Structures are given as structure tokens and as C-alpha cells.
Amino acid sequence: MASHIVGYPRMGPKRELKFALESFWDGKSSAEDLQKVAADLRASIWKQMANAGIKYIPSNTFSYYDQVLDATATLGAVPQRYGWTGGEIGFDTYFSMARGNATVPAMEMTKWFDTNYHFIVPELGPDVNFTYSSHKAVDEYKEAKALGVDTVPVLVGPVTYLLLSKPAKGVEKTFNLLSLLPKVLAVYKEVIADLKAAGASWIQFDEPTLVLDLESHKLQAFTDAYAELAPALSGLNVLIETYFADVPAAAYKTLTSLNGVTAYGFDLVRGTKTLDLIKGGFPSGKYLFAGVVDGRNIWANDLASSLATLQGLEGIVGKDNLVVSTSSSLLHTAVDLVNETKLDDEIKSWLAFAAQKIVEVNALAKALSGNKDEAFFSANAAAQASRKSSPRVTNEAVQKAAAALKGSDHRRATNVSARLDAQQKKLNLPILPTTTIGSFPQTVELRRVRREFKANKISEEEYVKSIKEEIHKVVQLQEELDIDVLVHGEPERNDMVEYFGEQLSGFAFTVNGWVQSYGSRCVKPPIIYGDVSRPKPMTVFWSSVAQSFTKRPMKGMLTGPVTILNWSFVRNDQPRSETTYQIALAIKDEVEDLEKAGITVIQIDEAALREGLPLRKSEQADYLDWAVHSFRITNVGVQDTTQIHTHMCYSNFNDIIHSIINMDADVITIENSRSDEKLLSVFREGVKYGAGIGPGVYDIHSPRIPPTEEIADRINKMLAVLEKNILWVNPDCGLKTRKYTEVKPALTNMVAAAKLIRNELAK
């Protein structure tokens, strides 16, 4: 019985690629240095899978930024503003598209389906000249082959690539991106020919858009694309891989009828209904790559249950045609549990990171072949039983409190218009008030202080003194810049979710459980293993310290319950909504303690609310209902004069704008500039928004410093669709990834632009 891995984490067990990328970007190392680190990581990954007995090992899943940007480079679809004149695309052009440069902004970045991973959105139009401009796929195949590992090259499928693209600036928004399919396929044929010539026998096309609710003409594009590619693919085994949800019946029919396709990969963890479609009919003689090992969470697989599922499938598709696989790429999990030295043995026995999931896949494949490792399966069964019976998982008081929430709507008694009036009397803010989103640059010195405190190398007194000094510096800077509503800069926090999880019960933490979010940005999601509660206040001390340094309003900074959920590895033994309600009650306690401490502006970030939206439309209303309800629970008890902010970033919010309004926040700050002000279109189309709103005026994920005139122009565009008395001026997101040499001039220009427009309005 064969085994397969959809994809694997790229950063390395100790974030080796992250540090190599940042060193290269800072000019401290060469392109050759970066390429050497990358080659060593790839070699390690391929050998690890080969040694574990995996038959179908992926290549070309490694990326210096993201796989969609890699596809853009392969197709030579570089926007004109980057000045690329042809030839093999190098790091300068590649990273300019991803990050921008001193003169040109980056391309739009958005979430990869419903994950916390991001991709760079292709910008296409009728005049794009697609040319084969990156030979990365064949180069990596040859690289693995030279190491003695025959791999399955992985490409973003041509239809998915176009469906994830957007019309370039200046192209009609109604432009049919699928009309570019023939031009795109011409390049794919060249790539396929190169791979065949290099000796590839399999090729994997990732077509995850097949799990979406697609109209018939989009499904027809898959039929047309693979019919056109069929002659080029002749002699190759072709796998079409889907993941993240059930495949709808119409898409399943389209997929399993594609010309020249050998195998189909399905997510059978998040797509359990797909099993019914397979049972209802599977093409004779084709391979089924059964994704039974979860690629998106860190819980050990229930091997007995998975084996039973696989045995049932074996009777449908045939023993020789069933391949055990992961449900998706392991990119979304941590790398290796071996590196976790501080997790206690009980919790550790419940977990499996990417390296362990490879072993699980192979163990299931061997069991199906009659070579079951009884000791391995027995240990797995014991761990499953331990998790179900452990007293640390359940807190009856928390469960009762969460269950009691369902009888109320939890909406503040006064409408938002009246609340804003009361808040303005107290805060006395100018028109177009300026603020930032929360974090300020995380300097090397600041990271050293936190690291040494965690390692007990400095005392708590020394740590508190250092953090207070950093807060004072950030407050002084904001006052010098004349920002209206201040933040404390979050110097005590390495990560917004990890910080809160460390102070809540029911959470566990890793040392090296890093997961890539975008580019070199890695996060370390906490693990929610049990019922959640707040033993004591989490942020009140630092917010009070910050407020004592200024007479201006100081925002209390919290992460909302839905974002904590979506940016954690979540327990899978109860509905996600139940866990979210528990977190909401903990945050509610914190909000009320902040208010008692005199904090009059409290931001409850829900950056990941849109991210968790189910991919299938039939499931979205239920999610939005409990997600929005959870946010309202957090602040239902505050006074009218306490201003509640929330923040959202890097997703498509236009389709959930009414749910955002239903959150009933006083002010929302929301990413806008990097997505080319797409958010503003909903207001042009007539959506009325009565609360405060701050669409971001500049992109913080680029080192580029926007001039005052550019920011002023953005504010004027906002004023064309939003009332001046509700508009705020702020960056797209927090500033922790930037340097002070970038932040100071950018914020200076932002404040200057706000004052410029205020003066114009006054005239």
C-alpha cells in the first residue's frame, strides 16, 4: 500500500529559512547564502520522507515566499511597475512583488482559503504576456533526483491560479480572468515537457478551488483545461489534489471525468461528506489519494478509526488503487514534536506534528498491506483514551457558564450613534482622529529582554523596568508625532494570541511549534486542549502603566475570541463554537477590568474573523452567527462612554460587511491600502455604515514609506463614500514587523495627511 504527502513545512525545525530570508533582505548575506540554506532544508525534507517509507514525495512545495507567487513567476506574469524586462525571474523582482521596494508598492496579499497562511494575489489582464520565466519546478525535481529521491512535482493548478487572481489596475473589474486560460496553458505545457524530459513519472496539480461553490462555467474551465493539457500529459501519471473542505457533487462529477487524469486527492478530515460521493461511484482503474491524516491540526491521528475508513474505501476503489495521504499540505502544522522539550508527557502523547504525521501516514499504509505495527497502534489507542478521560480537559463551571450564553443576544443597550456622541464628549477627539493598530517595532533589544526573562537570566523587577521604559519611549514618540489615540506598543508580547493563551487555562505552549504565515513571518499557535477560563487579569497592569504616561486616550489592547480560536491549534473533541464562547467569557472579564482601571478605549482585535468563514456557503450563516455573537459577549457590559474598537486585516471583507456591522463595535480599523482600496467599493455600492471606521491608509508589510500626498489622496477617496465624523486615519495593521527608521517617517506623513485634510475641510 502506497503513501503520499501533499506538501511539507518550509521554514525548518528552528526557522532556518526565516532567518536566512531576513538576513538577505537586510543585506547581511548573499543570494548564494540564502540558496544554500534553502537547498539544505529541501534535502533534509526529501530524505526524511524517503527514510519514513513515503512513496509519493512532493517537490516544488518549497517556496521563498508562497506557492502562488511562484506560479506567477513561472508564468512571467509580472506587473509592469516592477520593471522586469524578461528572462529568468530573480530575487529582486520576486521579492519586490511580495514586499514592494523603496519606490513601488507590493502586490495584494490575502488569506489562503480559510487558513492563516497568505498568498500574493496575481494581477492579470488581457495584455499580460505569459512566458516561461522560472524553472523552479524542474530544477527542484532534478535536485531531489540527484539526491536519489524521485519526487512528484507539484504545481498550482491552472484553473485555481486564474480563479485566485484579480484584474490588474486599469483593467475592467468585470474582465473574465478565465479567458486567459489558453495563454496560461501554453506555459504549463512547457513546464510539463521539461518535467517529462527530466524523468518525472507523476505530476500533482493542486486545484483546491474545486471545494468552493463554483458556477457551471468555472467547472467547465477545468474540463477545458485538462482536455487541452491531455496530449502534453500523455505518459505521465496525473494527480489532481483538493483540500480544506468537501468537494460539491457537481465538482466531484467534473473532477472524476477529467481527461488524462490518473488520481484524485481528497481531504477526508474536513471533507467527510466526500466519502458519500466516493461510495456513490468512483472511476474504475483510477487512484484515490485518501487524506485521512489531518494536515491542519496537531492532534495525533485516531489510527484505528482511520484504518477502518481506509478499509472501507479499499473495497470501493481496489487495494492497488488506494493511497494513504495527508488531508492537505503539512505547511499548516508545526514541524517536529521532537523539538518540544517543555510540554508535559501527557499532552505530548496526544500530539503529532508534521514529522510525526509522516510516520502516521506510513503506519496506516503498512497496516493496510498487512504489516500492522501493533505496538504503534496500541500506544496510539492509549493516547486517544488518555485524552478523552483526562480531568485537565474538563471544567464544569466553564461549561455551564458557556451554555447559559445561548439565551441572550448580548447587544449593548444603547445604539452606536448615541454611544459615539457620549464618547466624543469624553474623549474630545478632532475630525479624522489618528491612531495605530497596536504593536510598535520589536527591536533586537526588546526581544533579548523577553528571552532573558523567560530563561530566568534577569529578575522580574529588571524585566518590568525594561518594559516600562519601552512603553514610555513609544508613548513619547506618539505624542511627538501628535497621534490622537495612543497604544502602548505591546513590548511585553511576542505574539498577540500566544500572549493571551499563556494566561488562560486550557492552553498549552510549544518551544518550536512555529508555522509560516507569510514570507518570513512565523507564528507559534497555542494549543487549546481543554476548557478555557481566565484565572486573573492579563493586560490591566501594562495598560494602566501606559495610561499613566499620557493624558491622551490610551487603547487597551486585547485579542478577540474568534481570532484566538482561529490562530490556535483547537481541540477537535467539541464544536469550535463552544470553545469560542468560553474564550469570549474570559475576554469579557478582561474588558470589564480594563474599564474599571480607567481605560476608556479598548480594542478587541478580530483580525481572523473572516479567515474562519467556511468555504461552503451553506455553512457560513451559522459560523457568522456564533462568531459575531462571541464578539458582542466580550463588551456587552461596558458603559456607553467606553469606546470599543476592533481590527481586521488581509481578507476579503466585502462579502461579510453586514456581519461586521452586526458586531456593533464603536470603531473598526480594517486593512484597505494593500488590497487597492477594495473595501471602499461596498460603500460606493450603497452600504450604510454608522459606526467609526478606519480603512488603512498605508501598507505596513512593505518597507516603503508612503508620501503625505499619497495618504491624503487615500483619505479623500474615503471621504467620497464615508462621513467625515466617522472616519479614522490609521495604518493597515500593527507595526511590529517594521523598523523605527520606517515607522517614524511613515507615521509622520500619516499625521500630516490627516491635518492637511482637516484644514481643507475646515475651509
From TrEMBL:
Residues 3-315 form the Cobalamin-independent methionine synthase MetE N-terminal domain. GO terms for molecular function: 5-methyltetrahydropteroyltriglutamate-homocysteine S-methyltransferase activity; methionine synthase activity; zinc ion binding. It is an enzyme of class 2 (transferase). Residues 432-755 form the Cobalamin-independent methionine synthase MetE C-terminal/archaeal domain. Zn(2+) 2 binds at H658. 5-methyltetrahydropteroyltri-L-glutamate binds at K18, N116, R521, C522, W567. Pathway: Amino-acid biosynthesis; L-methionine biosynthesis via de novo pathway; L-methionine from L-homocysteine (MetE route): step 1/1. Pfam families: Meth_synt_1, Meth_synt_2. Keywords: Amino-acid biosynthesis, Metal-binding, Methionine biosynthesis, Methyltransferase, Transferase, Zinc. It comes from the Eukaryota. Its EC number is 2.1.1.14. Its cofactor is Zn(2+). SUPFAM superfamilies: UROD/MetE-like. One of its GO terms (biological process) is methylation. The keyword Metal-binding applies. PANTHER family: 5-METHYLTETRAHYDROPTEROYLTRIGLUTAMATE--HOMOCYSTEINE METHYLTRANSFERASE. Catalyzes the transfer of a methyl group from 5-methyltetrahydrofolate to homocysteine resulting in methionine formation. This is 5-methyltetrahydropteroyltriglutamate--homocysteine S-methyltransferase.
